[in-house]
Structures are given as C-alpha cells and as structure tokens.
Amino acid sequence: MTTPAKFRADVSEFVRKTQLAPDLVLRKLALDAYAGIIKRSPVDTGRFRSSHRLTINRIDPSVEPPRASRSSRAGVTREASPSDLNRVQGTLSRARFGVTVHITNSLPYARRLENGWSAQTNNQPDGIYGATFRELAANLSRAVGEVRRQL
Fold first, then answer.
1. How many secondary structure helices (H) and strands (E) does the chain include?
2. Residues contacting 136, CB < 8 A, separation 6+
3. Please, are residues 113 and 128 in contact by the beta-carbon 8 Å criterion?
4. Which residues of 90-127 are buried (b: 16+ CB within 10 A; e: fewer)?
5. Looking at 21-129, which runs of residues are DSSP E strands?
6. What is the pLDDT of residues 103-150, one digit of tens each?
7. Bridge partner list, 117
C-alpha cells in the first residue's frame, strides 16, 4: 500500500529521473486528484461535491452553504464545473514543488461518505479520497508522461 510519505518520495524520484519541472508535475498530480475526487463524489443536492477545497499548506474548513430548497441530481455532472477548475488552477498556479496540497471536505457527513455511507459509493470500498489517491499512485508514470508531452 502506498502511503503519503512513499508517494512523495516516488514523485521526487520520478521528477529527478525525468528532469521535468517539478512544479508542473505537482500541479498535474493535484489537478488529477481533484478531478478524481469530484468524479467519485456521490450527488444528492450537490453540496458535498461543491464543498471540496484544494489549498496549499493549510486546510480550508469552509463548506458550500445549504440551498434554500433541496434540488435533485438533475443537471449535476460528474466533472468539476469550469468555475471550480478555474479556482483550483488559480490556487495551483502558485504551488511550488515541496508544498503540501490539501484536498478536503469539511461537511459533517464527509467522513461517513468516505467510509461508504452512501449507496452511490458501493463500488468504492476504499472511499472517495482513498480510491483517488490509490489511482493517482498507480498512474504516477502516466501523469509524468503527460507533463513531458505538454512541454
């Protein structure tokens, strides 16, 4: 099993071997992680999905305020909205290799969702964040290759 410390060491080693700009690798991995979490997030009202926060070297405890009326899943996509991606990319544009990127959700029921509370997460026994982290670790070389092709 990959731990955060091992993952950090693996990324550092890939960056050293490939001689890629480490800031670009960090940004690519963080954006992939954020997109994976959004994609795996169950949707009822959309509040959980909208309350994921990506920050650098700190945790943002804010959450999306409840809506006045409960909405349905209609119109809620499996991807992050353009405004969410713009916000995340703006945050990541200031990220430098070696910082800690936090992706959190401070809703009171977020931990229960991570632990399988929603029927929508039945196919993710290791959780929304856990599954995304494991996928990111498993596809590290692919992500680094994508950064290389973009240069």
1. 7, 2
2. 7, 29, 32, 33, 36, 143
3. yes
4. ebbeebeeeeebebbbebeebeebbeeebebbeebeeb
5. 52-56, 101-105
6. 999 999 999 999 887 776 656 668 899 999 988 888 877 777 777 777
7. none
Q: Who wins on pLDDT, 13 or 52?
A: 52
For residue 54, what are its two tokens?
């990506």
- Cα angle, residue 74 at apex, residues 69 and 77 outer, rounded to 5°: 115
Helix pair 82-92, 22-40: axis angle to 10 deg: 150
Neighbour-count burial of 39, counting CB atoms closer than 10 A to its CB (0-12 exposed, 13-18 middle, 19+ buried) = middle
Distance, in Å, from the CA atom of 125 to the CA atom of 105, rounded to the nearest integer, reads 19
Give the whole-angstrom CA distance, residue 136 versus residue 128: 12
Q: 102 forms bridges with which residues in the sheet? A: 55
Q: What is the token pair recorded at 64?
A: 């999306």
Q: How crowded is residue 56: how many other Cβ atoms within 10 Å of its Cβ?
A: 15
pTM, two decimals, is 0.79
